[in-house]
Amino acid sequence: MISWPQIHQPDIEVKLKPLILNDSKQGMVQVRNSRFFSMYVCGITPYDATHLGHAATYIAFDLINRYLKLEHTSVHFVENITDIDDPLFERASRDSIDWKTLAQSQISLFTEDMCALKILPPDDFVRVTDSINLVIEFIKMLQRKGYVYEISGDFYFASSDFLSDLPIPQAEAVEIFAQRGGDPPREGKDHPLDPVLWLKNKDQEPGWESPFGFGRPGWHVECTAIALDFLDRNEEDYVIDLQGGGNDLLFPHHFMSAQLIKAATGRDFAKFYIHTGLVGYEGEKMSKSKGNLEFVSRLIKQGVDPVVIRWALIRDHYQSYREWNVGLLQNSVSEVDLIRKALAKSEVCPVDELIEEIISALSNNLQTQVVTDLIIAWARNSLAGDDSTSFKNDSGKLSRALDSLLGLVF
């Protein structure tokens, strides 16, 4: 599927340091500087797009993508769209709208938001509805290995051989699994944590013909099938270099995806697992159930400049829990205005050292809170006076660097 239009990333003359990221399994790791890098980031379920939690996650992986591209690494970036899921069908039913129409409207809104936020588009933007055959073939691989069983027309993955590295105690895992789409108490399951691979059709939901009957795929198998088909080069012990998403995907989604790949191929899914922190709103976790989601499109319609939104979302570290509130928005408006005024000057503080410091902070696990403080300090110093002995006509050089490295177009 065609994603959003290409975003220009200026080519800048800089010396980059090796990129180090905080891996959810391994701790601090150096992301290899090689000719080719594959990255899979879990995309939206298109029933309510794009809230600020989505935006913060995709901005974080955009920063990684930008950094690697500036290293002249060939990045193959894939993002899926989960356009088959219960929340989509529930909202379509609630609003008396065709589920396909609802999905397309939210996908269009999402791509508009990504453009506004200057996020580089994925090389492949893949709908699950366009990938049913990939999912079916993947389930058949699991079936040939003996890891598929049936309960009343639904097909499950037999996970028992792949639970030795659960990231949390099993009792806690079962509880979270039930909260996030699993059905641990279902009678007849081999193990409470076995995820569904194929659901038989019910209640007039959409479905597809398959060797497993007329129905639709389960959640975890969709991403594994797409990633394996689009990104696997059969050159490593793992299928992709980087698997990414919000930290609420650590379990069960990313854990189960990894076990499915291990069962089907005997290989690891990803070399690196990078996760972002959640975004709260006015003191509470931002969630659909609380009804406190703040949307990018709504902010833009209210007149908020997209660069202000992007700036606000990188003011804190991408792996920390962050709060969105009126104060953050107001401060970000003021800070962006300050930076614009400084960049509009013909003579400003020298920028070479600043750019080096920005690169150093980004290379150290995307320390954007350090980066933004550095930029604000530079802007204030540039506006404080006109020191003809040290000031230079460097604002254009800095503007290009901020655009290329951070996606900030002032």
From TrEMBL:
<keyword id="KW-0547">Nucleotide-binding</keyword>
<dbReference type="InterPro" id="IPR032678">
    <property type="entry name" value="tRNA-synt_1_cat_dom"/>
</dbReference>
<dbReference type="GO" id="GO:0004817">
    <property type="term" value="F:cysteine-tRNA ligase activity"/>
</dbReference>
<feature type="domain" description="tRNA synthetases class I catalytic">
    <location>
        <begin position="34"/>
        <end position="332"/>
    </location>
</feature>
<dbReference type="GO" id="GO:0005829">
    <property type="term" value="C:cytosol"/>
</dbReference>
<keyword id="KW-0067">ATP-binding</keyword>
<dbReference type="GO" id="GO:0006423">
    <property type="term" value="P:cysteinyl-tRNA aminoacylation"/>
</dbReference>
<dbReference type="InterPro" id="IPR024909">
    <property type="entry name" value="Cys-tRNA/MSH_ligase"/>
</dbReference>
<dbReference type="InterPro" id="IPR014729">
    <property type="entry name" value="Rossmann-like_a/b/a_fold"/>
</dbReference>
<dbReference type="GO" id="GO:0005524">
    <property type="term" value="F:ATP binding"/>
</dbReference>
<dbReference type="Pfam" id="PF01406">
    <property type="entry name" value="tRNA-synt_1e"/>
</dbReference>
<protein>
    <submittedName>
        <fullName>Unannotated protein</fullName>
    </submittedName>
</protein>
<keyword id="KW-0436">Ligase</keyword>
